[in-house]
Amino acid sequence: MIQTKVDLFPNNTFGIHAYAERFAVFKTVDELKTLLKDHQATESQITILGGGSNILLTKDQAGLVLKNELKGIKIVDEDDSFAYVCAAGGESWHDFVCFAIDNKLGGIENLSLIPGSVGAAPMQNIGAYGVEIKDVFHSLEALNRSELTLQTFTHDDCKFGYRESVFKNELKGQFVITSLTLKLSKVHTLNTSYGAIDTFLADKGIKQPTIKDVSEAVIAIRQSKLPDPKKIGNSGSFFKNPVISLDQFKTLQQKFPTIAHYLNADETVKLAAGWLIETAGWKGKTIGNYGVHKNQALVLVNYGGATGKEIYDLSESILQSVKSMFGIELEREVNIL
Question: Is 92 in the same domain as 61?
Answer without folding.
Answer: no
